[in-house]
Design a protein that fits this description.
The protein contains 14 helices and 11 strands.
């Protein structure tokens, strides 16, 4: 689904080997933070990292709000806007040397492109024109809606997505996060070109924007590019604020009886917010749990076709527990056992845990080697932690996690779980 996830990473030995394999090159490739700055251009907030290591330039424009925008607008409206713009300009941008992309998430949407320095002056105006003066023609919106509808039909019919939705709606039922930023079938079917054009004119403003650029580009070049394009948009009056708190609910199940060949279990756990002391330990604990679930349920016991935990680092972080099996009750018992294992970390020598933590840190470091990876890390840090410089502090926070921190957050947070089950109820005992 959405947000940054840490998925099916194996247990200590494999991670440690991977760390030794590419750790040195990762460390040598880290940019000098003195080359990173933030400033404003015509009302657009810019985070800019000069990276002279190569000629790749990453451009990411964040439109803040995400699911909070959908309190007053149809689900999927911003996804439809950005997909329509891509339909109209994507081909021209690629011919100009840019590779376009867009994403929507619970806290923001992102549109941008990757290019080489030599093509930036040509690719930028093509991309920026789509944001500033989008035509949003009927045919483009129709094609974009058809594409999103196809994805939505698949998303809401697949068992894996359905069981996640059941658990998600249970924990966020009265919260903006309950809204689907990619849109539901009914919401997408109800939107036409005029609704998208109205949304663009009302909601695309410089006050909603954060622009992140990483590459061998000078500040003078960035100022010129932004001032002549994005800086001409209306300022608006948007002010970013994190989503509201979520009530921590006691353990409960939400079930849906289906006669399926495979049964599906999903749990959602609320974690500490970005900036709180336990944030990094919660991410590491989730990743450790993921490896243990996969190792036990799939490799050792062969009880599950897929078993893992995911970390979703949104403004309200969550850990997700997922497993599919023909023996769901047995799987659920193991899930509880592995949760208790993380809460105690029994039968694990300290040196193995330390090596695991080192490997996990290097794995996170490796994700930030590319220009786009650095741009994403800077944008997330600026929005969620309030300062782009926290992108480097993030890695330090991961590195500082110790076994006792993992046990503490597992005990504190991994006891209130919203569980969902999709499958044959005769095969499943939901006794807690």
């Amino acid at each position: 689904m959405m947000g940054r996830r840490v998925g099916r990473i194996r247990l200590p030995g494999v991670l440690a080997a991977a760390a030794l394999t590419f750790g040195a090159s990762v460390l040598e490739g880290q940019p000098n933070d003195s080359l990173t700055s933030s400033y404003e251009v015509s009302g657009v907030r810019v985070v800019h990292r000069v990276n002279r290591a190569n000629d790749v330039v990453a451009v990411r424009l964040y439109l803040l709000g995400g699911s909070q925008q959908l309190v007053d607008h149809p689900e999927g409206i911003e996804a439809l806007l950005l997909r329509s713009i891509q339909m109209e300009t994507g081909g021209a941008l690629e011919r100009s040397g840019g590779r376009p992309f867009f994403e929507v998430d619970r806290d923001w949407s992102v549109t941008g492109f990757l290019t080489l320095r030599e093509y930036l002056a040509e690719a930028w105006p093509v991309w920026a024109e789509g944001i500033t003066t989008a035509t949003l023609s009927g045919p483009a919106v129709t094609r974009a809606r058809a594409s999103l509808l196809s994805d939505a039909r698949q998303r809401y019919s697949e068992s894996e997505s359905r069981v996640h939705w059941l658990a998600w709606q249970s924990i966020f039922r009265d919260h903006p996060y309950r809204f689907d930023p990619w849109g539901t079938i009914s919401s997408l079917e109800g939107m036409g070109a005029q609704a998208v054009r109205d949304y663009h004119s009302e909601q695309v403003s410089t006050s909603r924007m954060l622009l992140v650029i990483v590459g061998n580009v000078s500040r003078e070049e960035v100022v010129e590019l932004v001032a002549g394009t994005l800086g001409r948009l209306p300022e608006g009056s948007y002010a970013w604020s994190p989503p509201p708190e979520v009530e921590r609910l006691p353990n409960q199940w939400r079930t849906e009886n289906r006669d399926l060949p495979t049964n599906y279990i999903q749990g959602i756990i609320l974690g500490p917010r970005p900036g709180e002391d336990d944030y990094f330990a919660f991410e590491v604990a989730t990743n450790l749990l993921s490896g243990k679930l996969h190792s036990t349920l799939r490799d050792k016991l062969s009880l599950s076709y897929a078993a893992y935990a995911t970390f979703d680092g949104s403004a309200i972080p969550t850990a997700g527990i997922y497993a599919s099996s023909t023996s769901p009750t047995a799987v659920y018992r193991v899930v509880i056992e592995e949760l208790e294992w993380v809460q105690t970390l029994t039968r694990v020598p300290g040196w193995i845990l330390n090596r695991y933590l080192e490997g996990f840190y290097l794995d996170q470091l490796a994700q930030n080697v590319t220009a786009d990876g650095q741009a994403e890390a800077l944008g997330r840090a600026e929005i969620l932690f309030g300062d782009h410089r926290q992108a480097d502090a993030y890695l330090e926070g991961i590195q500082d996690v110790r076994p006792h921190d993992i046990r503490r957050v597992a005990i504190e947070y991994m006891r209130d779980i919203q569980m969902a089950y999709l499958g044959n109820l005769r095969l499943m005992s939901t006794n807690w």
